[in-house]
Amino acid sequence: MIYVTGDLHGPAGLERLECWSEGREGDFLIVAGDFGYPWDYSEIECDEIVWLESLPYKVLFVDGNHERFGHWEDRPAESWCGGMVQRLRDRSPVMRLMRSEVYNIDGVRIFTLGGATSIDRAYRMPHVNWWPQEVPTERNFEEARANLGAVGWNVDYVVTHTCPRNLMARTLYPSIPIPGLPDERLTRFLDEVDWRLDYKRWYYGHFHKDMDVDEKHTLLFERIVPIGEGVGN
After folding, report:
1. Element housing 168 (H / E)
2. What residues are paired with 29 via a beta bridge?
3. Residue 127 DSSP label
4. Of the candidates 2, 7, 3, 1, which has an alpha carbon nearest to the alpha carbon of residue 222?
5. Model-level pTM?
6. Secondary structure class of 39 (helix, strand, coil)
7. What's 195's DSSP letter?
8. 3-state secondary structure 45-82
């Protein structure tokens, strides 16, 4: 069984997993961005990572905007379930589902594309608690087109951190979208994917809400749902 949840933000989200008892041996839990490990390499954080690695199910994640990208740039990539992944550390069962990849996990075809813009980046320090790699590149978009083309633009599910541009107003309501963010190219590319791709349901995080935006798009934060299901609002 595959499950999906929203932003973890490192220790801030651990209680969610501590209280969740459905995950079993052989299951997978996908975090829709802002996984948040590693961050400061503290002794407490190392203990939390050991706990995550001890869970009976595998923890997978797409990157968000609050990740330590310097760590991931140094990690080797390997092939897993048809796509490329990076392990949190050598032999770790915790894995990053990389950008633009298509996986076949437990018989389910999943497209992933992490990344988004930190709206608080002006108050953060580059390469200390903010990394410019948070926003995908045109190369990522071209790789996504190629990988989706190879499967006939047909997958079962999509997991991203942010959402297509056409969903932004409904996602943020009653707030309004902020124009001109650096990830506008990303959200417009996700529009292209949304229009071209044949899929059953799209999951994303980033906005700290749990809601079914419509019958095919589910925004996740604290809820954990079996893949294929929404939150039911």
Report:
1. helix 168-172
2. 3, 59
3. T
4. 7
5. 0.95
6. coil
7. H
8. HHHHHHHHHHCCCEEEEECCCCCCHHHHHCCCEEEECC
pLDDT of residue 120: 67
Task: Retrieve residue 188's tokens.
Answer: 């417009």
In whole angstroms, give the CA distance from residue 77 to residue 94. Answer: 13
Residue 11: helix, strand or coil by DSSP? Answer: helix
Which structural domains are found in the chain, ordered by start? Answer: 2-226 (3.60.21)
Rounded to whole angstroms, the Cα distance separating 50 from 221 reads 23
Give 178's pLDDT tier (boundaries 50, 70, 90): low
Give how far the C-alpha of residue 96 lies from the chain's centroid of Cα atoms, to the nearest Å. 9
CA atoms of 192 and 188, how far apart (whole Å)? 7
Number of neighbours of residue 10 by Cβ within 10 angstroms: 20
Max CA distance (Å), the chain: 46
DSSP 8-state symbol, 177: P
Write out pLDDT tens, residues 131-144.
678 899 999 999 99
